[in-house]
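Lab channel / #folding
Pinned by the channel admin:
"Please post every new chain as: sequence first, then the C-alpha cells as a reply. Keep commentary short and put observations after the output so the thread stays searchable."

First post following the new format, from NK:
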Amino acid sequence: MIECALDPDTKKWLKDFLGDMVRFDEPMSKHTSFRVGGPAEAYVKVQNIEDLAVLVKGAYERNLPWHIIGDGTNLLVKDQGVKGIVIVLKGFFTGNEIDWKKDDSALVKCMAGFRIKNLCRLAAANRLKGMNPVLGIPGTVGGGIVMNAGNDMGAISDVLDSVTFMMADGKIKTISAKNLCFKYRKLLWDSGYKEKYGKFPVILQGIFRLCISSKSLKELEQEAWKILSRRKEKQPLEFPSAGCFFKNPLSGEPAGKLIDLAGLKGKTAGGAQISPKHANFIINRNNASCSDILELAETVKQKVADMFGVILKSEVRILE
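Reply from TO:
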C-alpha cells in the first residue's frame, strides 16, 4: 500500500463538501481501460466547474497530491494505488455546442469530459471534416488535447482553435491554440505554471475549428466506417489495454515494427502480453498486474535498444 496523504480532517472536508461524489480506497482497476491498478485514496466525481475550483484550490492550499483523469484510457495505475485525490471529469463535463460561421466553418465547443468518439459523431452528423485523425481513439476531449492524440493522418491539435483551463488557484483562462506548444503525443505547457503551482493546468474545454465537407453524409459515414474497420482489423480491441504503449520514434521505423522485428510479438510476463496482432499493444490477457505490464514494457525497451539503438518512450501515463 502507498503512504497515505489524506489525514482524517482532509477526508472529513472532502466528505462534507462532496457527499456521495467521493469514494475512499476506490479500486482504480474499475476505472482504467487496462483493468489494473490499486486503490485511490480518494476518488472524486466533480459535477460542475464551481466545485472543481473549490476542490483544486483546496488541494493546492493543503499541499495535497491530486490527479485529473477522464476515461482512464491512456493510463496505467500502480498496484499499490494512488496517493491523494483522483478527480474524474467524465460524466458531468460533457457539454457541447456548434457555433456556425458565415464562411462554411464552425467552432465546435466541447467540455473536457466529452468523449472523442462523440465529438467525431457530432462533426460527421453536421458534415464537418477534420476529425479523422482521432476517429476511433478512445478517451475524452481533455485527455486527447493533453496527449495531442492522433494517427498517421494528423493530430487533434491540427483543428484545435482554443483551450480553456483552470489553474491550481481556481482561476480560469482561455488561450489560443496558436500560443500553445504541441509536440508528438503531448502538449507542452509553459513551465511557469508548474513552477508556481506544482501542477499543470486542468483543461476544461476545447474549441475546434472545422469546415463543412464537400462530401455527402453517406460518403462521410462510409469513410469513417473504413477507418474504424481498418483499426479493428489491426488492433487487439478485444482485450484490455491502453492502446499503443510506446511513442513512435521521430524517424525510422514505427515502434510496433521495431518490437515485431525484435521477435517480441506474443511474449508474456504474468498475465500481460505483447499482442500477436499489433506489437505496440501490451494487453491484459489474463488478470495482469501493473507490475506484469511494466516488466514487459521494460523487456521491450531493453531488447529494442540492444538490437536497433532506439530508446522507446512510453505513450501511457503512469499514476502512483
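NK: The CA atoms of residues 112 and 142 lie 4 Å apart.
TO: also worth noting, The chain has a mean pLDDT of 94.
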